[in-house]
From TrEMBL:
Family statement: Belongs to the GDA1/CD39 NTPase family.
Keyword rRNA processing in annotation: no
Keyword check for Transmembrane helix: yes
GO cellular component terms, semicolon-separated: Golgi apparatus; membrane
UniProt: ATP binding residues: G183, A184, S185, A186, Q187
Transmembrane domains' residue ranges: 520-537
Active site: E146
GO biological process: CTP metabolic process; UDP catabolic process
PANTHER family per the UniProt record, alphabetical: ADENOSINE/GUANOSINE DIPHOSPHATASE, NUCLEOSIDE-DIPHOSPHATASE MIG-23
Protein name per UniProt: Golgi apyrase
Origin: domain of life: Eukaryota
Source organism per UniProt: Thermothelomyces thermophilus (strain ATCC 42464 / BCRC 31852 / DSM 1799) (Sporotrichum thermophile)
């Protein structure tokens, strides 16, 4: 899969089962390398696949009394499926979350803690997934948190975050509301209009995401949950009220929310015939009466201490359906697009939906079964529960939340931009309510919202002051005391990044600045040190003086008696340093062991220093401050040898080289002819009375045994 991908695993532990979700996104560091200006303003791009999900039954909460079995008998199947999808070399870098919802919320706190502790221990001991913090990764989340995650997922898929200009609903509003209904609870999340947001600021959550350029994206969202308002819990409350309507001695209870002629137990199990001594529900198929009996379950008669309220006396800011357009998932989708059809509907229409429901629920049960022979197992159960779920959904939507009844009531004309109309007209997202299952092929699930938040937390922030962490909390400035962090950090992928990325671990708070300034900083540093070097060594005598001191340090590091370091197996580093120093300081390169070094050690180097001379720009072979000789100006091979060969200073070479009977190891074609050396030497010796009287030049040319043995000598020289 390559090194550029990040992975995430999240287990949705609901009341009826646990569902695995796997997501993948590009590592922020890699994404930045090819990001366009538009990409930089967007959130990370998450992808998933239908084969990356798997659901098993029953729910985790059923293991409350046998917590030790939840791992091997429940979770391992999902773990095995995840390992088939995620590359082996990515497992340790992949976070795993298990977040339990309403089913676990109904358990006592002691059983909740026992289950979450056992789950964390099992995953840590039996998998290699990243699980650094049990409290963060394995938890029972609040309904408000579930609703907020769903709100993130919905707006992420619809484009409300990345392209607000294309989703202007009016009054500066560009996000969508979120409705979710499961088996045990229901959630709502939306961003109120500006007036309501200011009026109810203390009721809102501050949500902070981070776009790819590292800058925060903040939203003020209201979210709440109604525990017990899921379809299964509502059904239990309905049956309880139905039981109380009749005398305790009554064994057959008419149920208008069941198809006509259907018999079930109070728990909903079908009965083929009458069972004596057992309370039985008998379907009457009266849908209007069903709506009347389910309405009281909304709790609209409960006192509202903080007006306004929606359901069960719980406060919520007023909803402006001019700009607040909701999408509904889970039961909102299944109940409107299940046995009642409507799969091809592009928008929810109350009148059309209610007509189909009445038609279905008024049929005899035998007739329904005959026309739905394909319904087996859960399909039969879905059909027998469809009427109650439809009545509950309609009451919650229109009587509880107040969604206008499209098709019956006058709905305000959507005040939206032309771009938003064209983008949403096929989906119906400009209507006050629209049930959805998938958007662009991706299931709308609150788990996606959680993973979007996690992926956004991996983006390095553009500011270094750390005031903008990713997460959510109370609607106050800065970082609230109850802020829930995304749980991710901006660090490279495991051990798969280069050494250049190691500084991410220290404080990579803005990779953009790092990428832009890295080459610039290196260039300025190089220029600075270059000028510093040239300033200190701009004069030749200073370079030579430093070279003298440098040579003494090198010589002291050698062991006594090792006149030939290479032969004795040591001193290679010293020789290398000496050669490097020669290149930098322009000094002589000795090739004869310790004789030259001894002279320098005895303090006689001043005799061999070159005096300052005025430069003659018109002389092709004049000595420069770099110490280049006339011969080195003509020959590339002897250019770096100008000083050490002595050709530019015949006084030094004739007195030192030939006094010891040694010849330079580098001899050019002109050297072999003997013309340049002899001619230049004689001319310059006449200018030096000291050397002329000593006869050093004649002795060095006539009596040097090395010259006779040199393999580079030509016959002309030997003659």
């Amino acid at each position: 899969m390559g090194r550029k991908w990040r992975w995430g695993v999240i287990l949705d532990a609901g009341s009826s089962g646990t569902r695995l979700h796997i997501y993948r996104w590009k590592d922020p560091e890699k994404a930045l390398q090819s990001a366009t200006p538009e990409d930089l303003r967007n959130l990370p791009k998450l992808v998933t696949d239908k084969d990356w999900t798997k659901k098993i039954r029953p729910g985790v909460s059923t293991f409350a009394d046998k917590a030790e079995d939840v791992g091997p008998n429940h979770l391992q199947v999902l773990v095995d499926h995840a390992l088939k999808v995620i590359p082996k070399d990515k497992v340790e870098d992949t976070p795993i979350f298990l977040m339990a919802t309403a089913g676990m919320r109904l358990l006592p706190q002691a059983q909740q803690r026992a289950l979450t502790s056992e789950i964390c221990s099992y995953l840590r001991q039996n998998t290699r997934f990243s699980l650094p913090d049990c409290d963060l990764h394995i938890q029972v989340i609040k309904g408000e948190t579930e609703g907020l995650y769903g709100w993130i997922a919905s707006n992420y898929l619809l484009g409300g975050f990345d392209h607000p200009d294309k989703h202007q609903h009016g009054k500066g509003h560009h996000t969508y509301g979120f409705l979710d209904m499961g088996g045990a609870s229901a959630q709502i999340a939306f961003a109120p209009n500006a007036t309501e947001a200011e009026k109810h600021a203390n009721d809102l959550k501050l949500l902070r995401l981070r776009t790819l350029d590292g800058y925060p994206a903040e939203y003020k969202v209201f979210t709440t949950t109604w525990l017990g308002f899921g379809v299964n819990q509502a059904r239990e409350a309905y049956v309880k009220n139905l039981r109380e309507r009749y005398a305790e001695t009554e064994m057959e209870l008419p149920d208008p929310c069941l198809p006509r002629g259907l018999r079930t137990t109070l728990g909903g199990d079908p009965l083929e015939k009458r069972e004596s001594g057992m309370p039985t529900l008998i379907g009457t198929g009266q849908f209007d009466e069903c709506l009347q009996l389910t309405y009281p379950l909304l709790g609209k008669d409960k006192p509202c201490e903080d007006s306004p309220c929606l359901l069960n006396g719980q406060h919520a800011p007023a909803i402006d359906f001019d700009v607040n357009h909701f999408i509904g998932v889970s039961e909102y989708w299944h109940t409107t697009h299940g046995v009642f059809g409507g799969k091809d509907d592009k928008a929810y229409d109350f009148a059309s939906y209610q007509r189909r429901v009445k038609e279905f629920c008024g049929r005899d049960w035998d007739q329904i079964k005959a026309k739905t022979n394909s319904l087996k197992g859960d399909g039969i159960k879905v059909a027998q529960e469809a009427c109650f779920k439809a009545s509950w959904l309609l009451n919650v939507l229109h009587e509880g939340i107040g969604v206008p009844r499209i098709g019956l009531e006058d709905v305000p004309t959507a005040n939206a931009s032309k771009g938003a109309l064209e983008h949403a007209k096929e989906r119906g997202f400009l209507q006050p309510f629209q049930p959805v299952d998938k958007i662009d092929g991706i299931e709308v699930s609150w788990t996606l919202g959680k993973m979007v938040l996690y992926a956004a937390g991996q983006i390095p922030p553009a500011t270094r002051d750390g005031r903008y962490p990713v997460g959510f909390g109370s609607n106050v400035e800065g970082t609230p005391y109850d802020f829930q962090f995304a749980g991710s950090s901006w660090k490279p992928i495991g051990n798969q990044t280069s050494e250049a990325d190691d500084d991410w671990e220290l404080n990579a708070e803005d990779i953009l600045d790092k990428a832009k300034s890295k080459s610039t900083s290196f260039f300025f540093a190089f220029v600075f040190f270059l000028f510093l070097f040239l300033y200190f060594f701009r004069k030749r005598e200073r370079r030579m003086r430093l070279y003298s001191r440098f040579s003494q340090v090198i010589r002291r590091q050698r062991k006594p008696g090792h006149s030939n370091p290479r032969k004795n197996g040591g001193g290679g580093g010293t020789r290398a340093l000496s050669g490097l120093a020669t290149k930098f300081f322009g000094g002589r390169r000795p090739s004869w062991g310790g004789a030259y070094e001894r002279v320098m050690e005895e303090g006689e180097a001043s005799r061999f220093e070159l005096g300052e001379v005025e430069s003659d720009d018109g002389h092709e072979y004049s000595d420069s401050s770099d110490g280049l000789s006339a011969l080195s100006a003509k020959s590339a091979s002897s250019r770096r040898f100008g000083l050490s060969s002595g050709l530019s200073t015949p006084q030094v070479v004739d007195h030192h080289h030939y006094h010891h009977g040694l010849a330079s190891p580098t001899v050019t074609a002109l050297d072999r002819s003997g013309l340049v050396v002899r001619t230049e030497s004689r001319e310059r010796l006449t200018l030096s009375p000291h050397l002329a009287m000593s006869g050093v030049g004649r002795r060095s040319r006539a009596g040097s045994p090395t010259r006779l043995k040199s393999p580079l000598m030509s016959p002309l020289q030997e003659s």
